[in-house]
Amino acid sequence: MTKAIDDATQPAIARQAEYYRAEQRRMPLYRALAEAMQSLRNCEASKPTSPSGGWATRWANVVRELVSSLPHGSGFDSDPRISLQQSKPDRIVIDGSFHKMDSNGYYCGWSDFRVTVKPTFDGIDVDARGAGSTDLNDYIAETYRHALCEHVDINAAHLRVLERLPANWREGA
């Protein structure tokens, strides 16, 4: 039964991949994340089923792919995590950790932080809390603001997710 379903799914996935290759949808990262997270919520609410794990799984993978564009390195040495429970249609909540250094240049500990992103009339408001000093919170907020305003191609994120599917699904029988 699974083989028959897999064979039937191949052409649809191949068509989706062609669409994502042909069309470019560039938008700020915060908007792409908000769109992908809302699509994930909608899928989870409707409980779709499919042999490939359903659209909810694919949207979750797109969210993960987009999160990989958030700051990493230079103190942001752990992967950021989207808090789906705390995030709402009017805000994105991101949890992370910052690896602090002392005055001698040695790592001296971690500071956990939470970044809250809210839409405004002229872009976004980014607030970071929990990292300790006001200066560090401001630095984290500014670094995330810059990353979240960078334009990404959401279709490229979809394509990278599709490319991770088994080869026989991508080729389209």
Average pLDDT confidence is 80
Total number of domains: 2
Radius of gyration: 19 Å
Main pleated sheet: 4 strands, antiparallel
Number of helices: 6
Beta strand count: 6
Tell me the strand order in the biggest sheet. 2-3-4-5
Q: What is the terminal-to-terminal distance?
A: 17 Å
The gist of it:
The protein is of the alpha+beta class.
Report on this model:
The protein is of the alpha+beta class. The protein has two domains: 2-67 and 152-170, no CATH class; 81-149, no CATH class. It is built from six helices and six strands; from the N terminus they run H-E-H-H-E-E-E-E-H-E-H-H. It has helices at residues 2-22, 29-46, 54-67, 134-149, 154-163, 167-170; strands at 26-28, 81-82, 92-101, 107-120, 123-129, 151-153. The strands form two sheets. The chain has a four-stranded antiparallel sheet with strand order 2-3-4-5. Strand 3 and strand 4 form a beta hairpin. Helix 1 (2-22) packs antiparallel against helix 5 (154-163) and helix 2 packs antiparallel against helix 3. The longest helix has 21 residues, at 2-22. The protein is elongated and about 60 Å long. It starts with a helix and ends with a helix.
